[in-house]
Model the fold of this input.
Amino acid sequence: MPSLDFELERRNFLHYYDNNRQLFEEAKNASISIIASLLRQSNSGEVTKIEGRIKSKDECIKKFHRKYQNKLEAAEQSYRIQDYISDLIGIRIICLYEDQIAKVSEILQQHFRIIDVTDKISVVESTEDSFGYKGLHIDLALSDQLAAEEKYRPFAELPIEVQIRSLIQDAWSVLD
Done:
């Protein structure tokens, strides 16, 4: 049951994370496999890399503290930390060219349930400083069709953040 006690919720999150770590890993690997297969079938252009990671539990807690804790506690709204971490499982897709990003995004939107889209390309390009981190971030979950498959059912409700970048954008983010 959610509460306003950060220490209790931190312990609950650590317990949740430790008990589900293998499930997160399976969800990451399955997501990479599904995405790679969809991109191969769609002839979306050259994707140079698809990789994934599981965000560390410490980074999850830091992110929650930085972005959500004060607002939730000021509003006296009880919470569970895991409900606010949409990027616990992260997938990065690196396209050879920037114009492929929209094609990859369209394929994902056709085959997954979209939770949120953050276009960091447009945000950076709409400012005077055209440098900085660029990429398209899509929070998604398995579609009903994929979630119905027995092998995917255990992680059907887990959100996944997919970052789509061009090779140049990825290089820039490493330098930045």
User: Anything to note?
Assistant: The mean pLDDT is 90.
